[in-house]
Amino acid sequence: MTTSAAGQPLIPQPPATVAALRQAVRQITPAALPAFTRELDQAADQSRQGSDLAPLQRFVAQWAAYVYIQRQPDLAADLHDWEERAAAGDAAQVREAASEIGRILDRAHAAVGLNRR
């Protein structure tokens, strides 16, 4: 991952297009590129089969939020910490972690201006 000045995003938030998101993923989290491509293919197939753009819209919203989080190292680290707590904690810790993960995801979706479905 690229480094940045303390507290600054690694890159500006890209437009919510497949091409711009692919470039951002390539730049900040290249290891996620295979998942991006696989999920894009699945969303495109679902859209073609159902003659519906909703799967592609969900894909773009999900990856725009992912990029929003990953371009901010502190926020990405917080999310990772909460995910680890959710995986290893007792019931109360899992509930707290799930709440915090939801808060982070809601913030990311609101910031990119795409509805979370």
UniProtKB/TrEMBL annotation:
Determine the domain of life of the protein's source: Bacteria
Name the record gives this protein: DUF6247 family protein
